[in-house]
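FORM 12-B: Structure-to-Sequence Request
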């Protein structure tokens, strides 16, 4: 196929039909781009999660925040499954009080399951971004569901934060993200 026609087909502007040829799809130029952006998956853009255990002190959690240059920590139980999330303001608020942050476990101040908003490797990055905006939060744990007799557990396998989404936006502008470049993002 001629590369200019291939490009327009990929953009969704032309429809290619065998033996008929090309026809205008009726879609706007932005349509193809939007469609391609919707195909971006969380698994291709996630970062490593920064994880602490329920027994970690608030003090050590703050240290973890600095050491790993993160804004949100995911809290796991002894089996390594997701129990909660703690944000930098959760920690800041606690540190401003009179409580001994060396003695206080992070589990006391975290936001707990089942109120944690999560994403999965296969979810679209756009849906994950929408969750961040809708719930007014900075990061989502990327989880893998582990079926269990009583209730399903969630293994933390990554993190999607506003930084990941912003990086995609910047890379789009720089032409580094080949969203119209073929089958790679399908
Ligand atoms: P900050 O509190 O530093 O502004 P966030 O906006 O991410 O950071 O967090 C706001 C509140 O939402 C905090 O109390 C935090 O514990 C909670 N929170 C953060 N991420 C999640 C999440 N993925 N699911 C549920 N609650 C969250």
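FORM 12-B RESPONSE
SEQUENCE OUT:
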């Amino acid at each position: 196929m001629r590369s200019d026609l291939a490009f327009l087909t990929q953009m969704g502007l032309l429809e290619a039909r065998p033996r008929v040829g090309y026809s205008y799809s009726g879609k706007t130029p932005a349509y193809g781009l939007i469609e391609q952006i919707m195909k971006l998956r969380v698994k291709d853009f996630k970062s490593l999660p920064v994880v602490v255990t329920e027994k970690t002190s608030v003090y050590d959690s703050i240290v973890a925040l600095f050491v790993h240059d993160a804004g949100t920590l995911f809290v796991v139980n002894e089996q390594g499954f997701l129990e909660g999330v703690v944000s930098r303001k959760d920690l800041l608020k606690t540190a401003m009080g009179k409580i001994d942050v060396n003695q206080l476990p992070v589990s006391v101040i975290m936001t707990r399951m089942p109120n944690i908003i999560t994403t999965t490797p296969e979810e679209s990055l756009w849906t994950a971004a929408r969750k961040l905006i809708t719930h007014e939060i900075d990061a989502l744990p990327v989880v893998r569901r582990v079926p269990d007799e009583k209730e399903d557990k969630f293994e933390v396998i990554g993190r999607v934060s506003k930084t990941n989404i912003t990086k995609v936006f910047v890379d789009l502008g720089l032409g580094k993200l080949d969203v119209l470049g073929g089958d790679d993002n399908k």
